[in-house]
Design a protein that fits this description.
CATH superfamily: Cytochrome c-like domain
Radius of gyration: 18 Å
Number of helices: 6
Number of domains: 1
Structural class: mainly alpha
Largest sheet: none
C-alpha cells in the first residue's frame, strides 16, 4: 500500500515543483490586443487613466501590472454584486456591458502593462 502512495505522490510533487510557474507564462497576444481595444471602448481609461496608472481619483486603483486572475475576479465580483463598496458604484454602470470573455481579455491586458 505504501508503494502505491509513493507512486502517486512523486508525480504530484514533480508537478508542484515545476520551475515554469503559471504566472511566468507569457500572456496570449490576442487577449492582450483585445483587452487594449476593450480598455478604450468600455471607457476604462476615463477613470483609470490612459496608461492604467493615473486614475482620476486618488482612491481609484492603478491597474497596470495587476495580476490577471485577481483583476478578473474583482471585475466579476463587481458585475455579480459580490463586491459592493463606495468605489464600485461607477463600475456598476459599466459592468453589465462587459461579458465574461471581455473581462478576461481586460485582465490579461492589464497584467501585461508595466
Amino acid at each position: 500500500m505504501k508503494w502505491l502512495f509513493a507512486l502517486l505522490l512523486v508525480p504530484a510533487l514533480a508537478f508542484a515543483a515545476d520551475p515554469k510557474k503559471k504566472e511566468d507564462a507569457k500572456p496570449d497576444p490576442k487577449l492582450v490586443a483585445d483587452g487594449a481595444k476593450l480598455y478604450a471602448e468600455k471607457t476604462c481609461l476615463a477613470c483609470h487613466g490612459k496608461d492604467a496608472k493615473t486614475p482620476i481619483m486618488p482612491d481609484y486603483p492603478k491597474l497596470a501590472g495587476q495580476n490577471a486572475g485577481y483583476a478578473e475576479r474583482q471585475m466579476l465580483d463587481i458585475k455579480s454584486g459580490a463586491r459592493s463598496n463606495g468605489n464600485t458604484a461607477a463600475m456598476k454602470g459599466v459592468m453589465p456591458l462587459v461579458s465574461e470573455a471581455e473581462i478576461k481579455a481586460l485582465a490579461v491586458y492589464l497584467s501585461s502593462l508595466q
